[in-house]
Design brief:
Mean pLDDT: 76
Largest sheet: 3 strands, antiparallel
Helix content: 40-55%
Structural class: mainly alpha
Number of strands: 5
Shape: globular
Radius of gyration: 15 Å
Oligomer: single chain
Low-confidence stretches: 104-122
Distance between the termini: 38 Å
Strand order of the largest sheet: 1-2-3
Strand content: 5-15%
Number of helices: 5
């Protein structure tokens, strides 16, 4: 059975909003809770989203999101600086992204170029 594209769009947006708000990708149980579905259905929807042809992937051998375009959520030793401000608070950084309109990410099959909203924030 093919997953509903509208539901995948909503899940993709929820994942992006969660990454922007917290700096971490949601677990499939959080997706299930958000959409009022069983955990197994949340896991299936996450796998359907990862198989949708977007530049997103799970960490190998797990059900944990490693990357959801344009963000990579694997931990690194790099610190984030936005508008010249370096802040240890992920929430402060995510507020800067939202205030600059960076949440308006367009879904596109083209993976070569970030959308104008994302490019403006880089």
């Amino acid at each position: 059975m093919m997953p509903d594209a509208t539901r995948l769009d909503r899940i993709y947006r929820f994942v992006l909003e969660t990454v922007i708000a917290s700096g971490q990708a949601p677990h499939y149980t959080q997706i299930a809770t958000q959409f009022g579905i069983a955990p197994d259905a949340g896991k299936r929807m996450l796998h359907d989203l990862m198989a949708a042809g977007l530049p997103n992937w799970l960490h190998p051998g797990t059900d944990l999101i490693a990357s959801v375009a344009p963000f990579n959520v694997l931990p690194t030793h790099y610190r984030i600086t936005i508008d010249g401000e370096q802040n240890g608070s992920r929430n402060a950084a995510s507020k800067r992204w939202r205030s600059r309109g960076c949440l308006r990410v367009r879904m596109s099959k083209s993976t070569r170029h970030a959308s104008p909203a994302v490019r403006r924030c880089m």
